[in-house]
Design brief:
This protein is an all-alpha fold. The chain has helices spanning 3-20, 22-31, 36-56, 65-83, 85-89, 97-108, 124-139, 141-152, 157-163, 176-200, 205-216, 234-247, 251-258, 262-266, 269-291, 296-301, 304-310, 312-327, 342-354, 367-385, 402-428, 433-444, 465-479, 483-493, 496-503, and strands at 394-395, 398-399. Strand 1 (394-395) and strand 2 form a beta hairpin. Helix 4 packs across helix 6, helix 8 (141-152) crosses helix 10 and helix 15 packs across helix 18. The protein is built from 25 helices and two strands. The chain has a domain at 263-503. Strands 1-2 form a two-stranded antiparallel sheet.
Length: 504
């Protein structure tokens, strides 16, 4: 294991993190909020530690696959630990480091789950840092480091493989560092565009940037307690919906679109599947919340239900926003979907499992994996009917190699196993079944809101410290798509040396 290179790269990540903290510091100074010292302390500790790592560990040895996975996993953990420092030093978090790490891990993994009960009381600098963690984690702070690795004389291929979500690795350029730079340029361009459009809708720069970060990273942190519902503005909802939809698409397709390769974009089968899923879910929920016969008690307790009954346009508005938000795993909320009929809520939970496209900033299992699993099931049924026939697995005109199919099936099984295990753990800790399973998929799928006690207008503050640590781990597993984290544990506990001792 090339520990010198690993620690050297972690130093680079911490330096990047400290530089990123300068932006919330600027807002803190501008607004005169009481979090300047806390941000300065976080910057100083991260910068000094990062510089020490960079100067102390020197190595130009090539990185092996195992080391790439270790760098990515430990990088996200370090980013969350050091990123939590400004929160930890501020009185709003009461010195509870687990809560601080929960908030930053939720930010960097673009989950959007929060332990804050009063978001609007947080100072401007910390609010901006909270949202900025989304933006850094959305495209990937590791991907940013990849673009800079040649400066250190290190290869980045293995880190790219471990960082980018999806069963296969799409490259825009033959050089990984160039691919990383192009993806970040697209990301920055979309950030500028959405921020500008939101400011046209009446937001100031601080609020527009904060919500743009949450949108493009499919994170969901808002500066308001009521999330997007707090604005009650159709224009803002439409802008955010549009960019959530874009963020859920493979960013390589955005590159083709910018280059004018429209056929590559519109012929992509995953994009078609993703769009069809959204349209079908929006239609189903719209009809369900409009035509359901609500009881008098329900109508009295939740006046919004009467509006759903009277105006199908309102149903389309809220169904569209919530379906896109949940499917892309953003987690923004424009209405309290906890009051919707059971069918609509269960459908939203199913969408949490599916998630966005491979190569997007969205979480979940990913659309392409669902497509491969469905194709695999279809082929197995056909083989039972025609035992001697051979059926290749194709998505459109592209044949899917056998190792990719194995990877996808293994991923799905591990995902479901972890989902069941974490759900059982939370129920063992005394939480009800709906809260437990929805909190699990909301963190493992990097979505944020769930049902019951972690519903649309709730938070995660009530969980005990041990459960919070498990959910932090769940968020990390979901963002790094299981394998990167599991390989780290395999490396730590199942080395050749250990196997040698077992044989003796």
């Amino acid at each position: 294991m090339n520990y010198r290179s690993i620690l050297k790269i972690q130093g680079l990540l911490l330096v990047i993190l400290s530089i990123a903290m300068l932006f919330p510091l600027a807002f803190s100074l501008y607004y005169g909020s009481n979090d300047t010292n806390e941000l300065l302390a976080g910057i100083a500790i991260s910068l000094v530690t990062g510089v020490v790592f960079l100067l102390s560990f020197k190595s130009k040895e090539p990185l092996r696959p195992r080391e790439g996975f270790v760098i990515v996993t430990t990088g996200w953990i370090l980013a969350s630990l050091f990123g939590a420092l400004p929160f930890y030093f501020h009185e709003a978090f009461g010195g509870n480091f687990i809560n601080c790490v929960f908030e930053t891990m939720s930010g960097f993994t673009t989950t959007g789950a929060t332990i804050l009960t009063d978001i609007e009381s947080l100072p401007k600098g910390l609010l901006f840092w909270r949202s900025l963690t989304h933006w850094l984690g959305g495209m990937g702070i590791i991907l940013l480091a990849i673009a800079l690795l040649p400066i250190l004389g290190l290869s980045s291929t293995q880190m790219f493989r471990a960082e980018v979500p999806g069963p296969t690795m799409d490259k825009i350029s033959p050089k990984i560092k160039d691919t990383a730079k192009i993806l970040w340029m697209i990301y920055i361009g979309m950030t500028v565009l959405e921020t500008t459009l939101l400011m046209f809708g009446g937001m100031d720069l601080f609020t527009a940037l904060s919500h743009t970060f949450g949108t493009l990273a499919t994170g969901g942190f808002s500066t308001l307690n009521g999330s997007i519902a707090g604005f009650n503005n159709v224009y803002i909802e439409i802008v955010i919906m549009f960019f959530m939809y874009l963020a859920g698409i493979n960013f390589v397709l955005h590159f083709h679109l910018i280059r004018g390769n429209f056929s590559n974009f519109f012929s992509n089968r995953e994009w078609r599947f993703y769009t069809i899923i959204l349209l079908l879910a929006i239609t189903a929920i719209t009809l369900n919340i409009h035509f359901t016969d609500y009881t008098d008690t329900q109508l009295a307790d939740h006046p919004m239900l009467s509006i759903y009954k009277e105006n199908i346009g309102t149903c389309i508005r809220y169904a569209s926003f919530q379906v896109i938000s949940i499917t892309t795993t953003t987690g923004f909320v424009s209405t309290n979907f906890e009051v919707w009929p059971a069918f609509s809520k269960i459908l939203l939970v199913l969408l949490m499992f599916i998630g966005g496209s491979a190569g997007s900033t969205g979480g979940g299992i990913k659309q392409i994996r669902i497509m491969i699993i469905l194709k695999f099931i279809k082929n197995e049924i056909k083989k039972l009917t025609y035992p001697r026939a051979f059926f290749s697995l194709k998505i459109g005109d592209q044949s899917i190699q056998e190792y990719v199919v194995r990877n996808v099936i293994a991923f799905f099984l591990i995902f479901m196993f972890l989902f069941a295990g974490i759900t059982l753990f939370l129920t063992f800790m005394g939480y009800d079944i709906v809260t437990s399973f929805s909190a699990t998929i909301a963190t493992l799928g990097n979505i944020g809101p769930g049902l019951a006690r972690v519903g649309a207008v709730e938070n995660y503050a009530f969980f005990d410290p041990i459960s919070k640590i498990v959910l932090i781990f769940s968020m990390l597993l979901g963002r790094l798509e299981l394998y990167s984290v599991l390989i780290l544990f395999y490396t730590l506990f199942y080395t050749k040396r250990l196997f040698g001792k077992m044989k003796r």
